[in-house]
Write a sequence for this structure.
């Protein structure tokens, strides 16, 4: 599988010459680069693109072997991988080198940098939680600033996707897992600020992940340890949970993350949303018209595996409409299970190709093919720069005076 690293998708330049009148009328248009690339990929390479596991250590050596062996589509960083800005940038470059070595498909390198209580980078410029930002005197400015600075610092160390912002409407004060990660309990305000955050992140070049569809805000159960049931009718879901995700679609969120929750009002089968074709393909793709990447929440969570084992959960998520599988409990077994499901026809070739096309389209659109590497020597000059520190102080002062 070969592809040019400089190839990018997009409309033809306005200055491009018009097609010659002598050109044959039946000439086929040049296919989008992701479509052409999918046709060249082997089944094993396609299956690998679906996976985004954790990685060991803080140097490229061990993780690079995983990237090459499984043709991974992405990886996710946690604090164990992150020591200093330069080290993180060098890790990112080493992993991208491994990904580009044979197939030429760059990695999505992600992390959960929501700020507030969910922050992975030990050295990042700090901002308050979303609920705090939303409560200040100038919430739009504060949310925009926090997203911009966070995105710029992630890009500097080679992280090209942030699993943020949280798009849940937190209407349950006993919610053990969302809480201040949400912008609040007002659906319209949350929707508005989700749009502000997405626009700001995307402007930095970082891919954006709105989460957790179809809405994790009204639960007293943590999906890390159990399987929450949210008894919202379809009408209540439309009124309470849907607005931020509609905003995410309208603002071109690159990725939407699924929730390991059961919402009987949306799917009478009582399947977790991550494994529900009704929710992912019917509601998110069909009703909301979302065309980006759908990624599962961590498949290590109890909510993902309490009804099915880890291997079955991965297969069911892809069948339901998920494009990427985040943090499988056992990468090798999950990969082999999905590969076997493709070979048996349980996961159709068209479903696999559709998933990989979504992933590659995002990688082209966000410039991952064009610029997979970063300047490691400059990373420490971006992280915690004077301008970023001043911006953080301004936001902190604003939320103190307005909260």
């Amino acid at each position: 599988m070969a592809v040019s690293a400089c190839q990018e998708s997009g409309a033809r330049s306005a200055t491009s010459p018009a097609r010659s009148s002598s050109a044959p009328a039946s000439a086929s248009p040049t296919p989008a680069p992701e479509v052409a690339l999918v046709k060249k990929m082997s089944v094993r390479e396609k299956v690998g693109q679906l996976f985004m596991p954790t990685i060991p250590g803080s140097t490229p050596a061990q993780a690079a072997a995983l990237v090459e062996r499984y043709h991974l589509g992405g990886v996710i960083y946690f604090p164990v991988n992150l020591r200093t800005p330069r080290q993180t940038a060098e890790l990112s470059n080493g992993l991208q080198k491994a990904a580009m070595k044979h197939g030429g498909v760059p990695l999505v390198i992600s992390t959960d940098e929501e700020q507030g209580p969910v922050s992975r980078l030990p050295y990042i410029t700090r901002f308050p939680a979303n609920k705090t930002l939303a409560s200040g005197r100038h919430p739009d400015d504060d949310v925009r600033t926090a997203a911009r600075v966070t995105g710029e610092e992630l890009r500097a160390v080679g992280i090209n996707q942030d699993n943020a912002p949280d798009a849940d409407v937190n209407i349950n004060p006993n919610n053990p897992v969302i809480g201040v990660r949400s912008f609040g309990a007002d659906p319209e305000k949350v929707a508005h600020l989700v749009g502000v955050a997405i626009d700001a992140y995307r402007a930095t070049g970082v891919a954006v992940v709105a989460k957790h569809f179809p809405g994790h805000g009204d639960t007293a159960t943590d999906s890390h340890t159990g399987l929450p049931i949210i008894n919202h009718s379809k009408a209540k879901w439309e009124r309470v949970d849907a607005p931020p995700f509609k905003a995410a679609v309208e603002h071109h969120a690159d990725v939407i993350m699924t929730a390991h929750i059961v919402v009987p009002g949306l799917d009478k089968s009582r399947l977790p949303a991550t494994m529900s074709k009704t929710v992912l393909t019917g509601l998110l793709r069909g009703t909301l018209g979302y065309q980006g990447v759908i990624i599962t929440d961590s498949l290590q969570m109890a909510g993902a595996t309490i009804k099915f084992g880890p291997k079955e959960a991965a297969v069911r998520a892809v069948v339901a409409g998920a494009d990427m599988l985040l943090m499988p409990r056992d990468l090798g077994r999950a990969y082999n299970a999905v590969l076997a499901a493709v070979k048996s026809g349980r996961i159709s070739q068209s479903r696999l190709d559709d998933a990989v096309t979504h992933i590659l389209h995002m990688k082209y659109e966000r410039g991952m093919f064009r610029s997979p590497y970063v300047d490691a020597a400059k990373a420490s000059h971006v992280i915690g720069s004077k301008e970023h520190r001043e911006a953080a102080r301004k936001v902190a002062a604003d939320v103190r005076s307005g909260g």
Summary: Confidence is low (pLDDT under 50) at residues 1-26. The two ends are 54 Å apart (CA to CA).
